Amino acid sequence: MDGDKGLPGLSHPDHILRTIAAELAEKFAGTFSADMVERYVFESYAALARTARVSAMLPALAQKFATDRLTALAQSEGALPHAVPEVLFVCVENAGRSQMAAALLNRRAEGRVHARSAGASPIERVYPRAAEAMAELGVDMADAYPKPLTDDVVRAADVVITMSCPDACPVYAGKRYEDWELDDASEDTIEEARRIRNELDARVDKLLGQLPAMP
After folding, report:
1. CA 5 to chain centre
2. CA-wise closest residue to 47 among 148, 169, 124, 125
3. Nearest one of 84, 85, 44 to 67, comparing CA atoms
4. Considering the entire predicted model, what is its pTM?
5. Does the structural domain 86-210 have CATH classification 3.40.50.2300?
6. Do domains 14-76 and 86-210 have the same CATH topology?
């Protein structure tokens, strides 16, 4: 991939992204070609750059985003183990509800389930009140970042939970789809964020009890 090919108008540190791509190509050797891995890294960087507030963090975030997308794709294609149920939470901005739900499910499941989150129109950062409410439970969301919804994570999911955006995800056979109607913890008070957190926790607990163990 040469320079900004396919990413018009975007300035980015090619050498850093190529280094990241080379590292990930080793990680996914035998699963994906080096060219494909590099394309995912550059595309992930471009997608996050549309909303990112601190450009210095972009390469590191792009590495995390590309790694998760490639892992999801490998799982959906059977190239990596799909050992536990995969749940995807999707809301509009991926800054409150979906981030909280994924963190709560991962906390409760203790490795028995893996949760991801994404947004139909992600914004630049997780809502401070949402992060504060989660911190009260001992859940650190300092490294959480809003990310766009991509087809690879939908394909990897066994269960897709949407929140106020039921038409955001493509529908694939064999997956369970639900839409949860509840408020978002945007710039509301901490009391409101706690209420939403508690409602999500109750729903997540119920969902966890419904998920079968993987064979």
Report:
1. 26
2. 148
3. 44
4. 0.90
5. yes
6. no
Is 90 in contact with 169 (CB distance < 8 Å)?
Answer: yes
CA-CA distance, 95 to 90, in Å (whole number)?
A: 10
What gap in Å lies between CA 41 and CA 48, rounded to an integer?
Answer: 11
Element of type H or E holding 119:
strand 114-119
Q: What is the mean pLDDT of each run of 10 residues along the chain (215 residues)?
A: 42 84 98 98 94 78 97 95 94 95 96 96 93 96 94 96 89 93 84 95 95 67
pLDDT digits (tens, 9 = 90+) for 145-198: 999 999 999 999 999 999 988 888 889 999 999 999 988 887 778 999 999 999
Instruction: Please spell the DSSP secondary structure of 17-39, one letter per residue.
Output: HHHHHHHHHHHTTTTS-HHHHHH
14-76 CATH fold:
Helicase, Ruva Protein; domain 3 (1.10.8)
Report the alpha-carbon distance of residue 168 to residue 148 in Å, rounded: 11
Q: Treating both helix axes as pointing N-terminal to C-terminal, what angle do 34-49 and 14-27 enclose, rounded to 10 degrees?
A: 130
Domain boundaries, the chain: 14-76, 86-210
CA distance 153 to 75: 9
